[in-house]
Amino acid sequence: MRYTKMNEKTNAAATAAQENTALAVLSNTQDLSTEFATTAAGTGSIIRTTTTTDDVALFNAVNGSAESLEAYFDKDVQIKDIIVTSADVLKDIDDDPETGERENKPVVHFFTTDDRHISSISNGIARAAKNLLSCGFIPTAEHPFTIRFKTVKTKRGIAHSFDLISK
Asked: Which of 2, 67, 116, 139 has its CB surrounded by the most CB atoms within 10 Å?
C-alpha cells in the first residue's frame, strides 16, 4: 500500500479510497504470522499498514522505540493511530540470536492520545488489530478509540489480545 502525505485539504473520497485499500489488504490475508498485509507495500517493506501518514509516527514505528505491552494489560488506553510494521525475529526463542532461523512477523504499534507508543509482536494482538481494521474502525486523533489489552488462556498457554471499549 502506498501512503501519501495528507493535509486538511485532502478530500473525503481520496481518504476513503486509501482506507478501503488498506482494509482490502487486511481482509484478504490468511496466515497472520507470515502474510499479515504483506502485499500492502510489497515484500520486504518496513511499513505494512498504517492509519496515519504523520511522518513522526511512521519514523517512531520503524525505529522501534516503543513501550512494552505488559504495562498496559487490563487498562483502558485511548488509541489515535495504528501502524503495522515488519520485523525479523527468531523462529524459536531458545535459538542463538546469531545463528538461529528467523521469520518475518508483523509488529503492531499503537499511538495513544497522550503521545505514548506501545508495540507488540503477538499474533493475538495482530489478529485483533486486523479484525478492528477489517470492521472499518479506524482511530484518528479527532476520534480516538478506547481499547483494553488482555491476556487469554488457551490450550497452548497464554495469548494476548485487546477489546474495543468505545469508539
From this structure: 139
